[in-house]
Design goal:
- By secondary structure, the protein is mainly β.
- The protein is built from two helices and 57 strands.
- Strands 40, 41, 42, 43, 44, 45, 46, 47, 48, 49 and 50 form an eleven-stranded mixed sheet that branches. A seven-stranded parallel sheet has the order 7-8-10-13-16-19-22, with no helix packed on it. A six-stranded antiparallel sheet has the order 5-4-3-2-1-6, with no helix packed on it.
- A hairpin with a 4-residue loop joins strand 47 and strand 48.
Length: 669
């Protein structure tokens, strides 16, 4: 008997001798036999009963493995064709008929991991899970039926059927990456959830195929009472009520408008409205517009939603002390796939615009294509910083992973060339382990400030001789945080979160520190650290009159007390020492001018650098009339031209010095 051999799974079709067609069948008393259609005599197989497909095929076609029975006139070996049959079952240690392939179905009958495999159709039997470890992929060339407990572990699923690959059976969750190959459409039938917990979040990976049907997307929120910036990954505008089954969202009218009712009904959800926004960097910008109904469609595709997360549902509504619990948000809809081009519309009173991650996956931001009128930097909100969260500022040129469900602020100077283009290739399979983490780049210095338990803020300095030490377009202004601010001061007095400036030997970079009421012991650390060859940076604590060289792994502990001199804009500075040998030295620099912003609304800043002697700044209208005239005496600096009382239209800004003459077109909105 060949009881251990699943003949039907091994052999399909027919075999032939030199003349006669025959079929393979099972004789309960003897074993498996070849029965010829034109002859009563039989041949019985007596070869190996185990091994992979190739081993078994070779053995079956070997005449020495057959016992002949009155087959005079006929010859062996049997010639012909056969194929591995429809399925193989994972029993926890082996596949019943060898490993599956793109033409063989896989049946999961054990929750022990089978490792990576490829199959045609995939079936998970009742009471079992398909267990996939981190980085392990199951590739499916057919359909998937979950009659059991779905997917366990953080492994990945790739659907590669040419046509439509359909999910059926029980709904299931994935903590790994789901990828849809070119030519495949994944029909979810509302069965798929991208799960999220404290360690992992499922995602849709770089996919050339498409997805039809809805997907549930989760986002784990650690237990902390503070605001979060959220985006949804769906194709259409959504309601905030997507979240109200998981957290309490309050607002005007309470339950009548779909919110949780409180004694005040103060709004806890806002969207960014460019029509009411201004350029305020402190306090509550008027661009934050309260959601007035949880059941109205107000959360746009790739829109930024600011939500106060108090903890789990029912927590933190009465004003009493409590410990916030973690919560998991879930949203369901049709997810975005393929290239997503997001237009960032500028308001008349503000250059700030908001954008959400449009994909249900992390995105590597330094590969996202941006229009020429989009600013050089962007801001994300880090809820893990400080007591109530803090802004983290990044340059589009540096590495940063925006998580699934994440959102950002940036700036635009005009409503043209004002897009961010998110492509499938921008998706990242890496987890954004730290919102501060960037990949080190040449001539970038990262300074982080924390205490013994919390990180509070960070700033970035980039040395670039194509920039200025006054505020220019490569810089990012500092947005005020609720707990602590750490920043540089430009030469024209602007607070900067990203300071791009030329390296100038024997010059200094002022550092500002505002700890508000948080008197404490703090530490300044270096994160990514790269300075031009031949140079070094010295941290000068002017309050204690100490100096220490900044290096990779540097730490400097200090106290902020009730003494006003222990913080502020005059405690710290960074001294630049040495002449750089790997970037253009400042002795060969040329004059520069920039208009910030342009177009402008209420005012425009004229920043200039490396001009000689007295310079004259002039603003003329389209008819040639001089409407503003100012003399400046500094080699570098800036001045602000008020525009409030000037009509909209085109103007010309002219700067004339001994060594340069600039004319720049200005649009007044």
């Amino acid at each position: 008997m060949l009881a251990s051999l699943d003949w039907d799974a091994l052999w399909t079709g027919t075999v032939t001798t030199c003349q006669f067609s025959s079929t393979v069948s099972e004789d309960p008393g003897t074993g498996y036999e070849v029965e010829f259609s034109s002859h009563d005599d039989n041949g019985y197989y007596s070869g190996t009963q185990s091994g992979d497909k190739a081993t078994l095929q070779a053995a079956i076609l070997n005449s020495s493995n057959w016992t002949k029975n009155s087959l005079t006139g006929y010859t062996f070996p049997i010639a012909g064709s056969f194929s591995v049959g429809s399925s193989t079952t994972w029993n926890g240690s082996t596949w019943s008929a060898g490993a599956p392939s793109s033409t063989v179905d896989a049946v999961i009958a054990s929750s022990t991991t089978p490792g990576a495999f490829t199959c045609k159709d995939l079936t998970i039997n009742s009471s079992f899970s398909l267990t996939l470890g981190t980085g392990v992929t199951a590739t499916i060339h057919g359909d998937m039926t979950n009659s059991g407990n779905g997917i366990s572990g953080t492994g990945n699923l790739t659907f590669s059927k040419s046509g439509t690959s359909t999910l059926s059976g029980n709904a299931f969750s994935v903590l790994g990456v789901v990828t849809v190959s070119s030519g495949c459409t994944l029909a979810t039938a509302s069965k798929l959830t991208l799960a999220s917990n404290a360690s992992n979040t499922g995602s849709i990976g770089n996919s050339a195929g498409s997805i039809s049907g809805s997907v549930t997307v989760q986002r784990y929120i650690p237990g902390k009472r503070c605001y979060r910036f959220l985006a949804h990954p769906f194709t259409s505008t959504q309601q905030v009520s997507l979240l109200t089954d998981d957290i309490d969202i309050t607002g005007s009218g309470g339950a009548a408008n779909g919110f949780t009712t409180t004694t005040t009904n103060n709004p806890s959800s806002h969207i960014w409205d460019v029509t009411t926004a201004d350029n305020t960097t402190a306090g509550n910008n008027p661009g934050w517009s309260a959601i007035t109904s949880a059941t109205s469609s107000s959360w746009t595709k790739a829109g930024l939603l600011r939500v106060l997360v108090r903890g789990a549902k029912g927590e933190g509504l009465t004003g009493g002390a409590y410990t916030p619990s973690a919560s998991t948000l879930d949203m369901t809809g049709t997810v975005n796939t393929g290239t997503q081009t997001i237009t960032l519309t500028k308001g008349s009173g503000s250059t700030f615009v908001a954008c959400g991650n449009p994909f249900p996956s992390p995105v590597q931001m330094n590969t996202v294509a941006k229009g020429s009128n989009v600013g050089a930097n962007y801001y994300v909100w880090d809820a893990t910083s400080g007591a109530k969260g803090a802004y983290v500022t990044n340059a589009f040129t540096t590495s940063y992973i925006l998580p699934s469900g994440g959102a950002l602020f940036t700036t635009v100077s005009a409503n043209s060339n004002n897009t961010l283009e998110f492509q499938e290739a921008d998706k990242s399979t890496s987890s954004p382990a730290s919102i501060f983490k960037t990949t080190g780049a040449n001539d970038w210095v990262e300074l982080l400030i924390s205490d013994s338990t919390l990180k509070w803020d960070r700033l970035l300095i980039n040395f670039n001789d194509n920039s200025m030490d006054v505020q220019d377009k490569l810089d990012a202004v500092k947005l005020y945080n609720p707990g602590l601010d750490f920043f540089t001061m430009s030469k024209d007095g602007e607070r900067l979160a990203i300071d791009v400036r030329p390296y100038t030997d024997k010059s200094s970079i002022p550092l500002g520190l505002t700890a508000y009421t948080n008197y404490n012991k703090y530490v300044i650390r270096t994160g990514d650290y790269s300075v031009p060859a031949g140079t070094k940076l010295i941290l000068h604590d002017k309050y204690l009159n100490t100096q220490q060289e900044l290096k990779a792994g540097f730490e400097y502990w200090f106290d902020v007390t009730s003494d006003t001199l222990s913080q502020g804009n005059n405690r710290f500075e960074i001294n630049m020492v040495g002449k750089p040998t790997n970037i253009i030295t400042t002795s060969a620099t040329t004059p520069k001018i920039q208009l910030i912003p342009n177009p402008a609304h209420n005012e425009v800043k004229v920043s200039f650098d490396n001009v000689e002697g007295t310079a004259l700044v002039k603003l003329t209208n389209i008819t040639g009339q001089v409407v503003y005239l100012q003399e400046v005496n500094a080699a570098s600096g800036s001045l602000t031209i008020p525009l409030t009382n000037m009509p909209s239209g085109m103007y010309i800004v002219e700067l004339q010095s001994q060594n340069a003459r600039f004319t720049e077109k200005l649009i007044k909105e």
